[in-house]
Amino acid sequence: MSELSSLYCKVKITKPQLEKFLNDAPENAELNENWLKWWDSRRMYSKPDLTIEDLEAYRKSNNQEILDIWMNYQEAMAFSDYNETTEEWQWGMIFFSENYVEMLPMFTFIISLKKYVSESPENMAVVFPFFWGDTDVHAYIHFEKSNAILSPTVQTTNDIDPEVLNLTKDYLNKKWDNLANNMDFD
Question: What pLDDT shows up at residue 180?
Fold first, then answer.
């Protein structure tokens, strides 16, 4: 049985642009060559064809509602931190998903950030089994030139820049420690 992978996203975004993103309605993705190449590069059992219906956005009135659902789902151990000094938003969840099809609406959500983020080589999102120590990567999304790209070549954590991966793991470890210390185990 597979274990739940973690999601970590870090983007440079001004406070007004973050507020605009959170207040805007979710956007559906376009089934394009990037999505298809990424999907074809994934290894999974009984892989279905990727369809536009798979890429539908969460059905909520705004992006804040989507974030709130995950933040309020205690088992996900979700976090959302905005640093006004560095204008960085780091968010994600320790326990996200194990199923590619279930992950697709979140990837649509992340990719829709492309219109709001400030240009930075540090803008990225990754889904991998952080908590379990496996090296497989479900998805790696980076942002460049006002676009968000699902990387078909990132298959394992060895394919991620070691500095980026270490910063990601350090942040997730910090969030795990903080969230675990505040859990109610009754």
Answer: 81
Confidence of residue 185 (pLDDT cuts 50, 70, 90): low
Give domain status of residue 186, yes or no: no
- Given a contact cutoff of 8 angstroms between Cβ atoms, the answer to whether 130 and 160 are in contact is no
The chain-wide mean pLDDT, for the chain, equals 94
Write down the residue that tokens 């968010």 correspond to: 91
Query: Which domain does 150 fall in, by range?
Result: 5-181
- Provide the domain count of the chain: 1
Residue 14 CA to residue 113 CA, distance in Å, equals: 12
Positive or negative CA dihedral for 60, 75, 79, 5? Answer: negative
124-128 β-sheet, strand order: 78-83, 88-97, 5-12, 124-128, 139-144, 147-150
Tokens standing for 122? 């540090």
Backbone angles phi, psi at 67, to 5 degrees: -60, -45
Q: Is 56 inside a domain boundary?
A: yes
Residue 136: is its pLDDT beyond 90? yes
Q: What is the pLDDT of residues 95-131, one digit of tens each?
A: 999 999 999 999 999 999 999 999 999 999 999 999 8
